[in-house]
Write a structure and sequence with these properties.
With 113 residues, the protein is α+β, with helices and mostly antiparallel strands. It contains two helices and three strands. The chain has a domain of 37 residues.
Length: 113
Amino acid sequence: MPTYEYECDACQHAFEEFQSFSEKVLKKCPKCKKSKLRRLFGTGSAILFKGSGFYETDYRSESYKSSASADKESAAKSEPAAKKDSTPTPTPSTDSKSNAAAPKPSKPSPKKD
């Protein structure tokens, strides 16, 4: 709920009133009781952050925090098993490709007659 500033045009009395958005604008001055009160355009109130830092996750509900931690735990438990299944183990191969990488024998030297 915002705080509104009011000023009376008759007696120059200025004050602030804490009102809901749905409440009607005050018309009668509490000091002189005349209907010369007007609401001023104020700067409004600002959110004041104090402390070392604020993050959007600081104000999560307890149910959200508990389900998030449960998700992390289940992911951590299934992660090592997933890595073992997805990573192929190297095996020695006797393919022709592996032989192709072997050094070729040198050419025989030409015969002299």
